[in-house]
Amino acid sequence: METILTGIRVNGELTLGNLLGALLPMVRLAEKYKSTHRVNVFVPDLHTIIADVDGDLQANTLKSLRYYAAAGLDLAHENIHIYRQSYVPAHSELCWILDTVATMGEMGRMTQFKEKSEGRDSANVGIFNYPVLMAADILLYSAKYVPVGEDQFQHIELARNLAERFNHKYGPTFELPATTAEQAAFMQGLAVEGKKAAGIRIRDLQNPEKKMSKSSQAENSKIMLSDTPASAAAKIMGATTDSVGKVQFDMFNQPGISNLLSILALTTGDTLESVSARYAGETNYGDFKRKVAEAVELFLADFQVKVAQTPDQEILAAFTRGESYANEIAKTKLLDAQRAVGLR
Ligand code: TRP
After folding, report:
1. Ligand 1 pocket: which residues have CB below 6 Å?
2. Would residue 169 show up in a list of annotated catalytic residues for this protein?
3. For ligand 1, atom 6, which residue shows the shortest CA distance?
4. 114 assigned to active site
5. Which of 121, 145, 172, 336 is the most buried (most CB within 10 A)?
6. Which residues pair with 83 in a beta bridge?
């Protein structure tokens, strides 16, 4: 069985954009592959602490898992493994070993490192070392597919390079994850075969040129998952549109309307094509927005009920089971690496 592995970042409150653009596609991916693949979904809590934590880290972890469960992640499935990185010590240990084959030069070229450190002398070493820990996350489980955003592709390339260099120096130990081109094709396959508007970036409601972000100052530019359904609907009604006067999907000329079409598709579980076809010829933006607002209101109300209904024990039980599985697999691979290097 091939392994699909992904890390889910937890950073306090999430937006509707995070849910529709990241959580739901991940859940659909798990649903699609759970009977034929191992699906590892882990919380990279050691990665989280490279920056100040927003709120309580453990509470955030539980809450985000509750969000995934409410979005439909099957916590109890035998092929879905949910674990916290810091509960599997092999990640940190393999990170150190891989540090000795990574070079300062290649690490210094990581785009995310350059952006996050901004050349500051006071930037912490964790920011620099982040991609090596991520390589360990992947290589310990011989994961083939690692669904992530494009901003993470460079880190996947690094994991491939480190695995190859290690194997060359110490003998065959790690399996290489798929190339980024293969990763992209794998994710593309999901969007097409699933016939859902998967992986779409939901835009800021006031300024649809930008991505919806929880850090936005303007409250009505974003919908938080904790907003009341009625206030979410009101924010949709107040969303920026345009003066074209046609409801059609055209991200370039009509980002506001296109964003509302995406939101409508994702909240109703319909395809983008079919919602676009349904509103083709509609010229009254007010009527269209009211439909989107109703869909968002219903969707959020239902989602919040599911969030409230997922008990902590269910999540903790999934972690306990997942961590016992993950420790088994990871310990074995770590031992292979320790032997190869000569530590054992
Ligand atoms: N770096 C990823 C992100 O920012 C999170 C992550 C950490 C991850 N380790 C991983 C993703 C391993 C996939 C595989 O989203």
Report:
1. 5-7, 9, 44, 47, 134, 137-138, 146, 148, 152
2. no
3. 7
4. no
5. 145
6. 42
Cα(134) to ligand 1 centroid in Å equals 6
CA atoms within 13 A on the CB side of 158: 29
Task: Please give the model's pTM, rounded to 2 decimal places.
Answer: 0.90
Nearest atom (ligand 1) to Cα of 143: 14
Q: Terminal CA-to-CA distance of the chain, rounded, Å? A: 28
> pLDDT tens, 175-230?
999 999 999 898 876 553 333 334 568 999 999 999 999 889 999 999 999 999 99
The one catalytic residue in 32, 116, 306, 331 is 116
Q: What is the DSSP string of 236-294?
A: HHT----SS------TTT-HHHHHHHHHHHHHHT--HHHHHHHHTT---HHHHHHHHHH
